[in-house]
Amino acid sequence: MRLLHLLPALLAASSALAQRRPAATARAAAPLAPAPDVAMGLARDARIAAALADVSPARIRVTDSTLVAFGTRHTLSDTASDARGIGAARRFLYRELRAYSRDCGGCLRVEYDPHDVQIARFRDRPMARVVNVLAWLPGRDTSRVVVISGHYDSCICSTDAADATSDAPGADDDGSGASAVVELARVMSKRFPKGFDATIVFAVVAAEEQGLLGATGLARRLHDEQKTVVAAFTDDIIGNVMADDGRVDSTSVRTYAVDSVPSRSGELSRYVWGIGALYTPRLEVRPTFRLDRIGRGGDHSPFHRLGDPALRFTERLEDTKRQHLPTDDLTGVNFPYVAGVTRLNLATVASLGSAPPPVDSVVARRDRASGGQKWTVSWKSAPGAARYEVLFRATTSPTWTKVYDAGTVNSYLLDEQLDDGWAAVRSVSADGHRSLTTVASTGAPPRAPAAAPPAPPPAP
Ligand SMILES: [Zn+2]
Q1: 406 alpha carbon to ligand 1 midpoint, in Å?
Q2: 20 to 30 A from 80, CA-CA: which of 1, 45, 86, 124?
Q3: Which tens digit of pLDDT belongs to each residue from 374-384?
């Protein structure tokens, strides 16, 4: 971790070098700097780093305690009462987000986002009005959105709709994540009232426990409205630090995102890993390259299914003896830990929000002049990009290990052997924010034989 202290100097040296380099012809050269650790050349922004200090464990605790005090937030619970049930909970969330918007001069657009859906998990398959609460922080580009969600519904989960009346505190699942998202909206609207390049959607979503219904409605709506989802995150179960056997871990967090190559969620996972190393090094990011824990689901999944880069944040050690039970109360939530995850969220969302769009149509072709040792990587320009970087990793490496400055051109002769690795390209803004990486396609997939070939003769 000591290497991290050298990072600003390394980055300054690399950007000074980049400025001296003539932009017209980017040729193969030694990497400007090997990517230090997993930060892989991502740059730290002083404004984002300063905002992390505003994240308050005490405020997150107040929000979570208020949610728990509504008794249950079951999807089919009472909606008329102001003291109990999911209706009271969402009106509280709406009021809270509206108050933040007033404090930032109306910078947040707060709305209820209703979806009428059938709940197939219950025996009588009732219809329900599932209502997300959204706060939009518009960016310069309102067609690109970064979504950060947590679900505010809770349950004592079975197939019996009568559960709607039992107490279901849901302090960790997912009062912790919902409260983190509310805190992000507060801090980011105060610190960045003019928004970022991309638009941020703070989403407190409903009916996760009945099959991700609120998040599914939101994902479909954003796609119907022709938005480009830069990334969709969910904070779900981010507050427990003690396992049933007494083991404690309050210094690492897991991320879940699919990484089949090429996978945009896999690139998102590497990005969060790098941002964590850069901004919140005391909280170790532990990426897992699968959609979710085995047999479990989360609100990033509907976005993943629609092809968006999507990732879940979850505590390192879960206690499943508390989840979906009356024992999921505030004693099982460590608020300084939730605040740590919230800071990681903030650095990630603000960095992605500040970055230009990722590059499109990245193709790598074998370079004949070098006898096939090098590859020419080319891509389409991204609007707002000041320059581009080409990255390389061996197939056995979990993240990018080399970063090459390609300047302002759209093609780069890469002195790496892609038979043995992967290449990707990302766009860089004038102030040093990096987009998600786009993995290079290496041309047409191998042609399948038209018909099954005859069985080969046995080897002599
Ligand atoms: Zn949950």
Answers
A1: 42
A2: 124
A3: 999 999 999 99
Q: Which residues contact 411 (CB under 8 A, 6 or more apart)?
A: 26, 376, 377, 378, 379
| Percent of the chain topping pLDDT 90 | 79
pTM: 0.84
Domain ranges of the chain: 9-38+357-439, 46-354
What pLDDT, on the 0 to 100 scale, is given for residue 30?
A: 57
* Per-residue confidence (pLDDT) for residue 122, from 0 to 100: 85
162-185: pLDDT as tens digits:
688 899 999 999 999 999 999 999
pLDDT tens string 245-281:
999 999 999 999 988 777 899 999 999 999 999 999 9
Cα-to-chain-centroid distance, residue 367: 36
Centre of ligand 1 to C-alpha 319, Å, is 13
Listed residue (21, 17, 31) closest to 389, CA to CA: 31
**How far apart are the CA of 208 and the centre of ligand 1, in A?**
7
Nearest to 286 by CA among 12, 83, 38: 38
300, 234 contact by CB (below 8 A): yes
The string of pLDDT tens digits covering residues 115-124 is 999 998 888 8
Ligand 1 mean position, distance from CA 53 (Å): 27
Confidence at residue 124, expressed as pLDDT on a 0 to 100 scale: 86
CATH code for the domain defined by 9-38+357-439: 2.60.40.10
Q: Ligand 1 centroid to 130 CA: how many Å?
A: 16
Which pLDDT belongs to residue 263? 85
